[in-house]
Specification:
The chain is mainly alpha-helical and about 170 residues long. It is built from 5 helices and no strands. The chain has one domain.
């Protein structure tokens, strides 16, 4: 780069004043300033365009990476689904074969579920098996009563219902 100091600028101005003349010097200086400004704007536009192109190229790379990752995920999911479908079809064909031969043995999971359902029903009946007269006698709650109903039930009978708190 050229190093312009204050003394060099004064020297250039003196030579321009002698060569161009005092009447044309302001016009030439204005024209030189506008040309210099245009050049700076042009260089800044080129820099911005190059940076945009670089960012666009980076975005294309990221887009391709995401597309490849999505394809990999799609492939792994579809292969997993195909394996599951093959297993289900195999079990289904085994079940159909067992029905055709007359051996309708339930899978162990179905037996376990039936046993758990029976135990649940038995426990539920045991919870509800206490008679209501026994619950009333021992003081167990048989129904929900609101607070206002409890206050009204335990209010002394001598109090008038039309009296307020302050009277």
């Amino acid at each position: 780069m050229i190093d312009f100091g204050l003394t060099k600028l004064i020297m250039i101005g003196a030579v321009a004043l002698v060569v161009i003349g005092p009447e044309k010097l302001p016009k030439v200086a204005r024209m030189a300033g506008s040309i210099f400004g245009r050049a700076q704007r042009y260089i800044n536009d080129i820099k911005a365009e190059v940076s945009r192109e670089m960012e666009l190229e980076e975005l294309h790379k990221v887009h391709d990476e995401f597309r490849q990752a999505a394809a990999d995920v799609h492939q792994s999911v579809s292969s997993g689904l195909a394996e599951a479908k093959n297993e289900i079809n195999g079990v289904w064909s085994d079940m159909q074969g067992a029905r055709a031969t007359g051996t309708s043995e339930a899978p162990p999971d179905a037996l376990l579920i039936a046993r758990k359902a029976k135990a649940f029903r038995r426990k539920k009946l045991a919870r509800d098996a206490v008679p209501s007269w026994y619950k009333q006698r021992t003081g167990q709650k048989t129904r929900v009563v609101s607070a206002a109903a409890r206050v009204a039930r335990h209010r002394p009978s001598g109090m008038a219902s039309n009296r307020t708190f302050f009277h």
